[in-house]
Amino acid sequence: MNNNSIVRFISTFICFGIETALYLLKGGLKFYIWCFILLSLGGLVVIGGALQGYYGFIVTGLTDQVTWGLYLANFVFLVGVAAAAVTVVFPGYVYKHKEIKKVAVLGEMLAIAAVSMCMIFILFHMGRPDRLWHIFPGIGIFNWPNSMLTWDVVALNVYLALNVVCGFYYLYKKYMGEPTNDRWYIPLVYIACVWALSIHTVTAFLMNTMPTRPMWAHSILPIKFIITAFAAGPAFIIIAFSVIRNNTDLDIPDKVFHFLSQIVVWCLGIALFLTISELVTELYPGTEHSFSLVYTIMGKHGLTMIVPFFWTAMVFMVGSFILLLNPKIRKNLTILPYICLVAFVGIWLEKGMAFVLPGFNPSPIGEFSEYTPSIVEIINCIGTWAIGLFIFTILAKGAVGVLLGDIKYKEYPDS
Amino acid sequence: MKLFKITYTVAAATLAFFLSTGPVTDALADNTESDTPKTDCFESREGYTKVQRVEGDNEFDWPNIKCSDKTGGVLWWGDPFDGTEPMGEMPIEADYSHEEAVVKPRIPHLTYFMPCTACHNGETVPVPTSTKPRQLYMHQDIVPNSLDLKHGKGAIWCLNCHSAKNRDKLIDHFGNEISFNQPQKLCGKCHGQIYRDWRDGIHGKRTGSWRPNGKRRWWTCTECHNPHDMEPPFKQLEPEWAPELPRGMTNADHEQHHYPEDSGHGAGHDSPASGAGHGETKAGAGD
Amino acid sequence: MSDDIKKDRAEEPELTDQSRRSLFKTMGLGAASLAGAAALVTGSDDKAEARTTFAEFFQKNYRLMSEQEKKESVKRLETRYEEDYGRKVKVGYEPAEEGVLFGYALNIQKCIGCRRCVKACVKENNQSRHTTEIEWIRVIKLEKGQFSEAALTQGGYPGGDYGIQVGGNAYRNAGLILEGQHYYEPEKVPEKDSFYLPMQCMQCEKPPCVKVCPVRTTYRDPDGVVVIDYNWCIGCRMCMGACPYWARRFNFAHPTLPAKELNTDMHYLGNRPRVKGVVEKCHFCLQRTRKGRYTSCIEVCPVGARKFGNLLDPESEVRRILDRKRVFRLKAEFNTYPKFFYFVD
């Protein structure tokens, strides 16, 4: 690359940015209402964040007994969603599935949005977000490789970078009407695919390397996390693709949906299998290590906060699995997104509410207590989801514009 | 029903939050604890070794003690050696330095020391001729029934410990007198094992320096034990406040349930039966 | 040590201001706005927070500070605390003594569950008093229970011929999880059918909390005490998740600490008042023990169940207990090697 080409790259990339921004402003009433709702909900985090920043965590429902709450539950779930971008990237690039490759970039956009949400949730989870710089290598102390959390920081940030580079490079090249430079682009995509697995694995390691919390401390956790993520992620992608197909000119072939719904159903099946393995392993011997699980499933000592979440999750997961097993229903693209929504919510409940939270009950010294999320926590979670969905909407709309050719580089004679 | 519960919980949480933001701000300015610190306190067992809280003018701006608002027990000593004096003549086996071992003299805290020989001088009260147990009609506030002394289970009596001739002193096996300020010498004559542990710092309490040769206050036997009533050896105390419940919890009733009798939902016949069983257990133990 | 601090303060009155100014210069406007934003986020109205100076905000991790930086940092803290609480305070930074490894022994047979250690700890270590109350020691009541003939027909495996004896903890396995009561509130203790188990930070030799800390704000000092630099803690609460003994507490709000109850003798790693959003725990009363005094809980225990000393000194009380008594540690299977022992006579 000589000097000239660098200048050209920068100038054209700026054009790409400006044109995309202009394109984003154009949209139908539905788009504006959707964005308005998301932004108003997202604005709630300003109130919630200010309250939490001002008063401290006392405005949350967290206690010394249950120190990780909704924020971390959502974080863990969303890491999975981010990782699940691989379910469209991998078949597109490794299996050379043509139709999927065309829209694979949307998966990367979803990954970017999900990782952004993860980061907001982590900031909310931190007691001292103002001291975030303490973890930056160089100016702070980065306790790598000892602290599993630092592994997670590395995994998530590199994953974000990989997706930003791959996603935007692909879109930029599409915008320029040039082919991608596969010499480095394809290896990078492959790395991103493997890395996707690593982010959720490391998040699982974050939890299952704590023997103090027997509910989490088993080696089934990483694979269970990945499997549930690979059910929830494609489920969300199916919903997103349906919305895009119904509202834009982008033609996403039925084949893509069929492919994704198969991933959802098999991953749901394996997830249920792993759940059963876990239940039998823990409940049959009935040691004290199973108390957290007993608390989750039936309640313990009359404390039953998590029970409805667990059973709702089970009903949703089993229900959607059984429905999706039937090829007629699975291939009915009108119903599919709704079933996927049920599966998505089910996995959110199972992973977040019914897995992260009960891990703290009983406490290491045997105390049971109930954690009730406060209104501020709920506000912040809703707001963060809205921000994440807004980011995804914007990224997806821009990407669709590029894929459709609506955003296209026009060579001016003088440049 | 479950759904209702969730809705209710969310609503309650909302309400609780809006109600709680007020108290949060109030709490920051709330100084109730410091406004009227308890000044009339006791050190180890209730009724013995009373101390008054005095606001200090020392290097750390400390009071001499801080006490529990609930029980009046001393929770904190500014100067652990306040009101102490060297323990004095020590048992020869011990390997501590004499100067660094201090005690709080017991005599000022004794109920009837004015001194004892004011009455027990051989004239007002004659010197007893026999050390055999007999019914006493004095000091019944200390020993309600002299024929049923709650120490030694009938093996010993008053004059095995109190000098018959000099009532201001205690007495060892050989008839040597022991000061009331050094009860350990007396107790050690029977409780050899405990005495050894006490000497080595395993039994009993010390305050001051943790260094083996450092200055520290040795708490003597009678500061914790009532020699006239050793059943039980340490009298029951009023406990301090329970910890705050985890926020969001209104009671700790769940602690009363026990594995395996509780079945989570309190389903069916299990709960009431186990509840009754529990009650019986308690009542039985209380008898 | 405290005299040294005083002397230095007299000799170098300009020091902190200068360094603060130079910090400003180097950090520039960006840093200032960052700190400003941080102050806004963390509640600028909060007295202590507002006075957290830029220098304090940008100070290093305590372990990396030079002697000079430690002095400056301690002086900043003293100024802030004196303004906040209107009382003269001393923040010490005594390092671990050579040849000392602190150990603790608790006679579980003696404990009567009166919770005086809990409250004494609160008073000594400037913990938040209420909403939310922070207590580093938790006393668990364990019921002895009893066997009963009536229980023979209850529960058990299908068939019900051989029931499960539903006594208290004495007759049931209490391994990882203890079915105890934390919130017991009887008229008098000890109760006849119960015994008590106090727990606090075990000062592990292999502390899981230190391992998981992403910023190394918590670490083990040479005298065996696991300490926290409250100014470096980011409040991620990984350590709280990892601790097998539930020793760590989080400042959910700015601590409520009446000025009159403030303990003015402090240690940087010990009992100095904390801010909201950081984790704290028992540190064997560093401000006392590093000057040779017993911890607060030792001094207050009315039954003398608590013992403390130097594990490297064969003549110390705690070593004598290890030599002579039956000793065990909690959750030995976690391989944390606590320096907190339980024993019976």
Can you tell me about this structure?
- The complex is a heterotrimer of chains A (415), B (287) and C (345).
- Chain A is built from 14 helices and no strands.
- With 415 residues, chain A is mainly α.
- Chain B is of the alpha+beta class.
- Chain B has 7 helices and 10 strands.
- Mean pLDDT of chain B is 76; it is low at 12-32 and 260-287.
- Chain C has 345 residues and is an alpha+beta fold.
- In chain C, the strands form 5 sheets. Chain C has a 4-stranded mixed sheet with strand order 10-2-12-11.
- Chain C is globular, with a radius of gyration of 23 Å.
- The two termini of chain C are 39 Å apart.
- Classes of the chains: A mainly alpha (415), B alpha+beta (287), C alpha+beta (345).
- Chains in contact: A-B, A-C, B-C.
- The interface between A and B is medium-sized, with 30 and 29 residues.
Greatest interface by residues involved: B-C, 72 and 84 residues
Q: Kindly report how far apart the N and C termini of chain A lie.
A: 18 Å
Shape of chain C: globular
- Mean pLDDT metric of chain A: 93
Number of helices of chain C: 11
Topology order of chain C in helix (H) and strand (E) letters: HHHHHEEHEEHEEHEEEHHEHEE
**Low-confidence runs of chain A (pLDDT<50, min 5 residues)?**
none
Strand content of chain A: under 5%
- The CATH topology name of chain A reads Formate dehydrogenase/DMSO reductase fold
CATH class of chain A: Mainly Alpha
CATH architectural label of chain A: Up-down Bundle
Q: What number of domains of chain A?
A: 1
What is the general shape of chain A?
A: globular
Which value, in Å, is the CA radius of gyration of chain C?
23 Å
Could you name the CATH homologous superfamily of chain A? Formate dehydrogenase/DMSO reductase domain
CATH architectural grouping of the domain at 102-137 and 200-344 in chain C: 2-Layer Sandwich
**Arrangement of strands in the largest sheet of chain C:** 10-2-12-11
The number of helices of chain A is 14
